[in-house]
Task: structure prediction
Amino acid sequence: MANTSDISRGMILKLDGSLYTVVEFGENKTARAAAKVWAKLKGVDNSRSIEKTWNSGDTIYPVRVERKTFQFLYKDDTGFNFMDNETFEQIALAENLVDAPQFLKEGQEVSVLINTETEQPMSVELPDKIVVKVTYSEPGVKGDTATRTLKPATVETGATVNVPLFVNEGELIRINTKTGEYVERVKE
Result:
């Protein structure tokens, strides 16, 4: 059985019948009382974010998770359709299980987290950074480069990202999928 000393970032825990992933954790030590372990948790099977505190040494219930590589095929009425790269088995998942659905493009590889106890998919994670093509962007004003001014640009997935003025239509850019921010321009 695991206890609070085993907590790590990214670990998935079962609490009150729901699954939560550990976003941040730490320990509070005081001179008189026993140490306490705290964690910020984000719901895997719900959209709640909570904070939980345990006494040091309390039992926790981690869930064993397997990470498999899937390929995004298409989106339809059933949800987002993915194919297992090893077995070619297809699954359809709801939008709330996908990390950043606005950045999904056909043929893109993603990681699907699967609960090994129930064999149910729990969430879909995109790579941290992806390369996309800018499909629409207003031309930048010449000479307006003294400040870090940003302009909206539409990328091939349909999402809108703020980019520097020098980025033009048809160029490839790298985006951070966790924050939705522009990272850099990519040469072809």
The radius of gyration is 21 Å.
